[in-house]
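Workshop exercise sheet. Pairs work together: one partner reads the sequence aloud, the other fills in the structure field after running the prediction. Swap roles for the next sheet.
Pair: D.N. / O.F.
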Amino acid sequence: MASRSFRWLAIGLVAGVAGAQAPVVPTDHYGPPVCSAAAAPAHRMTAEAAKAEQEQGAGDSHAILSAEPLENFAIARYRLADYADCVGTNGCYWADLDAQYRRAEEALTTAVAAKKPGEKLAVVMDIDETALSSYCEMKREDFGYVGPLFNAWIVSPEASVAIPGGLRFFNKAKVEGVSVFFITGRAGVPDYSSGKPAVDQTEATARNLEAAGYRGWAGLVLRNGGENTVSTIEYKSEERHRIADKGYRIVMSVGDQWSDLLGEPKAEVSVKLPNPFYFLP
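Structure field:
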């Protein structure tokens, strides 16, 4: 296993990304980034239209109905798309993200105000759906998950899509003198002894963070191949231990998965962001 001095990338070591332009999430209104034409799915119904069609069929007195204890999966994906595109009656994903980040900013202000002389404060952030958005790739995969496609995309320049609230929060932490550490479940140094082909996503992840505007972070750590045998909660807890061992008081953790936040030591405040698209234990 590589040493931690190798795994933690220090501030300013990574150059910016040239080449393909990443989609940009709008900052003047709530809504998704405009994805490339290749990422746009075929024309689809809204969830409301699909539900109305179901109800029309169920209301036919001549129809023999089947038991359907689960929601139709296609309609569930329509609802995800509606929520991400801020249409229909299910709310707006981007507005909900921003609202959580504004709560996080208020809590950070309180923590900084209580700082003791000489104390080092730290915030831990996840990356995917926390600092960077995978919306365009999720949309291209019709809100499924195709591992080879997704893993190829997150190391591409197009993946440097900042979530505006996340970048705003990151910059506020820096202004307040709080160190920000990124801990992600992305693949770091492979376990070469396994004999399985693997790609270290560390450098590409660092480039995309900086290209998206996240500059001046205190550390970035990805999951080494050998750490894939432990749960995400165990892995991220151990990394928080390492930060605390450096003398930091971890005032906040921010993530879109409960596995980003659970385990000991917990941050003093845990901020759970919305993510209806996938669940990572």
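Discussion prompt: The radius of gyration is 21 Å. What would you look at next?
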